[in-house]
Write a sequence for this structure.
DNA sequence: CGGAATCCCAGCCGATACTG
DNA sequence: CAGTATCGGCTGGGATTCCG
């Protein structure tokens, strides 16, 4: 059929009888999944930005979710948070090297999605119709 | 900083003031997000399989979620469902060409996750430590 | 400015039981 | 074999309010 070498990594984990929720691969997938983290990584790919700047760039995000998403990404070492003791204090977020390296694979996925957007929409219509 | 050509596709959508939930890119991301669809695509990358065969390969999935996940993938044209009028009836699922083409980008993401699994785990420990 | 705390609901998802 | 039906818990995430 096709060599699915990469996919077998998940397979191996599954066959070890491990808890799927602790699989490290799932963890990354969950970031991609999370409603906002992809957008945030995208925004930061343009350069470091401050809390409210990111918020303004993503109009529909609440402060609550922005905070939480930033924490999640920081926790996993994908972005770094730096506080400047100005008055009032400002906080800057930027991609780490690891976060930067994620943009490649993530971009590939987004490219695929863009390329297949209309076939998918078509498939949905066809499915709904019959 | 870095060319983020791919990522700008999402950006464009956002700036059009569109509802993010209807962005076609999000549809794909949601599949990746969903707890089981990635595993199912993985399993089917090895070749066509029947309902219960997939279920046995993914021991922790319930029939309910298996059905639902298969429907989701079928709805978007990533897998195809074929019923054989045997006795008792059997149903076979296989990747479509579009589904097959998703394995590449998805595999790249999984490779990245596998490669950075331990740095991420390390970052989490460091973060938890304070 | 950059958050934290609280309330609350929609939906995801698991368990269980039933069907053609 | 390949589903469908129903119930219910858990949590993601929106709205709002308060704080250093």
């Amino acid at each position: 059929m096709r060599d699915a070498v990469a996919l077998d990594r998940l397979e191996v984990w599954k066959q070890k009888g491990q808890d799927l929720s602790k699989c490290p691969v799932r963890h990354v997938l969950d970031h991609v999944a999370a409603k906002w983290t992809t957008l945030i990584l995208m925004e930061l790919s343009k350069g470091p930005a401050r809390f409210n700047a990111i918020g303004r760039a993503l109009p529909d995000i609440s402060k609550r979710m922005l905070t939480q998403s930033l924490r999640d990404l920081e926790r996993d070492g994908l972005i770094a948070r730096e506080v400047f003791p100005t008055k009032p204090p400002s906080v800057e977020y930027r991609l780490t090297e690891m976060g930067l390296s994620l943009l490649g694979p993530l971009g590939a996925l987004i490219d695929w999605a863009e390329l297949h957007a209309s076939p998918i929409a078509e498939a949905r219509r066809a499915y709904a119709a019959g």
Observations:
- Chain B touches chain A through 62 residues (CB under 8 Å).
